[in-house]
Specification:
The structure is a single chain. With 193 residues, the protein is an alpha/beta fold. 50% of the residues lie in helices and 16% in strands. The chain contains nine helices and five strands; from the N terminus they run ααβαβαβαααααββ. Strands 2-1-3-4-5 form a five-stranded mixed sheet. It is globular and about 60 Å long. The structure holds cobalt (II) ion. Cobalt (II) ion binds next to helix 5.
């Protein structure tokens, strides 16, 4: 994929949108009313609108390596604050995925330089659940389980943010922990709530 391809594909995509609905873009620019905040991994294989069959305007998105909600990360905190207080989303989805490189990095001892402090957050989850994880002999399943535990742990982290806790109490904001199973293309609900 090069820049010429991107420009060409964008043009035909834009045309396909206005073909069935000439007002599509003039309506789109009026504003967004997404009901869902999605926090997922930056992995190129986990394209949120595609896997959830969503259209533009339906999902407010934040992505980072291994879908982390870190209390000192102003970026994720700003996204959450805007989504919960201003957009008043009804659902927050934290979505991990099997085969996550960030989670795999936490399971290895390799030095990743500037990435180390970020990966350390996942290593903490590994340490907290070491007994369970060390009892899993299959390496793929171990990665998958840490992906699940990581998503659940991020659900807990986001529940502790004041705006989120308040919206849970006052207007029943729901938090969902999901995993994208790349073996099947299906989402798994970890039943956080
Ligand atoms: Co990932």
């Amino acid at each position: 994929m090069n820049i010429q391809d991107i420009m060409k594909k964008n043009k035909s995509w834009s045309e396909s949108k206005t073909k069935g609905d000439p007002e599509y873009f003039s309506n789109l620019i009026k504003g967004q009313v997404p009901k869902v905040l999605y926090i997922g991994c930056s992995d190129s294989r986990v394209a949120v609108e595609q896997i959830m069959g969503a259209d533009l305007g339906e999902i407010f998105v934040h992505r980072n390596i291994a879908n982390l909600v870190v209390q000192s990360d102003l970026n994720v905190l700003s996204v959450i604050n805007y989504a919960v207080i201003h957009l008043k989303v009804e659902h927050i989805i934290i979505c991990g995925h099997y085969g996550c490189g960030g989670v795999q990095a936490a399971l290895s001892d390799s030095d990743l330089g500037d990435l180390n402090p970020w990966i350390a957050h996942i290593k903490e989850i590994y340490t907290k659940n070491q007994k369970e994880l060390d009892s899993i002999t299959d390496d793929t399943r171990k990665n998958e389980r840490l992906v699940e535990l990581n998503a659940l742990s991020q659900c807990q982290n986001i529940s502790k943010i004041q705006a989120v806790a308040q919206a849970q109490n006052e207007r029943k904001l729901q938090i969902h922990g999901l995993v994208f199973n790349m073996n099947t293309g299906l989402l798994i609900d970890l039943n956080y709530n």
